[in-house]
Amino acid sequence: MRFHVLTLFPAAFHDHLEYSMLAKALQRDLVSIEVTDIRDYTNDLHHTADDYQFGGGHGMIMKADPVFEATEAALSGYSEDERAKIPIIFFTPQGETLTQKLVEELSEARALAMICAHYAGIDNRVPDFLATREISLGDFVLTGGELPAMALIDAVSRLVSGVIGSPENVTEDSISSGLLQHPLYTRPAEFRDMGVPEILLSGHHANIEKWRREQSLQRTLERRPDLLLTADLSPADFKYLRTLGYEPPSNTE
Fold first, then answer.
1. Which CATH architecture has domain 176-253?
2. Per-residue pLDDT tens for 180-198?
């Protein structure tokens, strides 16, 4: 997987890419991340990448021309057919919300290009004629697109074979499995009068798996009941959920 980041602040990515599993993935050539400074594609002495709004208004707007040229340069190593298949992502609160399903879809691409906006916004010719996808982390506003880009790189990289040690670590995660993850514990078994559930110490694997599944169902019902509408649930799951007071829509069983 290859990531191409277009930003006014390339240094923002340096520390993030030097630690944790992303650093190891880069060292092992499982992913590559190319950060392009949009200011390198400005055409004036001061490398001006923003300007006043036509029609007036508060705040400066990122110019379209350096963003187009930086993106085209970053993707110049691909054939025309390859470029046509690379999602060019623009981060904006107006975009579709980033979900695990969308992460999985994007992970199927050979490469991703990500445009990080700043200031009061960006010339609308970028989302209209350059970006092929608009994505939001949620209903809030950040100072720039660098954090969303890092989040997307991290989420997609986890799905690249070899980045995470065990494939089960990915498929059993909260959200990835369709439900929230069950509680996790490790040693010591007793800590400040707080113990580990006895079932986990029993060595009875079938009972442990049943307990974990029920805990996932209960957590999801309590915290994210909307996930139950799309989760792959068995008749036993529905039976347990009913003991918790959940009545599924008639078309879900």
1. Orthogonal Bundle (1.10)
2. 999 999 999 999 999 999 9
Class of domain 2-157: alpha beta
Residue recorded with tokens 């060595």: 203
- Render pLDDT for 54-75 as a digit per residue (tens, 0 to 9): 998 899 999 999 999 999 999 9
